[in-house]
Design goal:
42% strand, mainly beta, 7% helix, five-stranded mixed barrel, seven-stranded mixed β-sheet
Length: 243
Amino acid sequence: MRLVKLVALFGFWQGAGVSFSCGPYFPCWNISDVGVVFVGTPIRYKAAGPSSIAVDFAVSETLGTPLGQKWVTVNKSRGTDSGYPFRMGVEYLVFANKIKSELWTSSCLGTRPVIVATALVRQLRAIKERRPAAQIFGFIGTEPYPGVSPASRLEAKPIGSISITAKTGSAEFRTSSNPDGSFEFSGLPAGLYHVSPTLPEGIFIWFMKFVLAHEFSVQPGVACEADLPLYPKDDPFGANQPR
């Protein structure tokens, strides 16, 4: 394993290839613009200056631009989780920008626990190996408070065997989620698509109208991430959500 030192800075999202968790929502991205991406596990925090804390990572897989060195590091602002609230011992998919000799990440870059990134990791591996990536893909599962905090994703529970439809005009394409919550569509004709699941009773989509209104532009050389955040009927945090 390689040890990576990553730097996290809130709001620094420019240049990222894949989807954001803050700022503008760009669900589709050019597969030739992956950037610095790796799978790794944080093993310790340490001071890195008057206003930042470094996070050391054990890297198990590099999925984008080669890191180019065996030992690197990553930071976040001291006294805040604005950079990214990494938890020791949890495996993450980390997106980063390289600034001079340092790597920087943030909650805006798409960094997340691997448990909710299974479909994305699969596409990144395909791109790295020069194989076709799925045109629309994503993760479907429940979270205690989707979209509110990155920490919520640590408690995600994938749901398998969910029927999911991708629709453009009068054409519909269907697939089902895998046990790890991942799903994907390949071989779609170019066009604008809406994605929707057929959910079991008592399960709802977080910000349903917004999620179902997303348009995914399928075209050559582009991949679109269509995560479907869910919550159960008895979740008190979702009591006021439209259903």
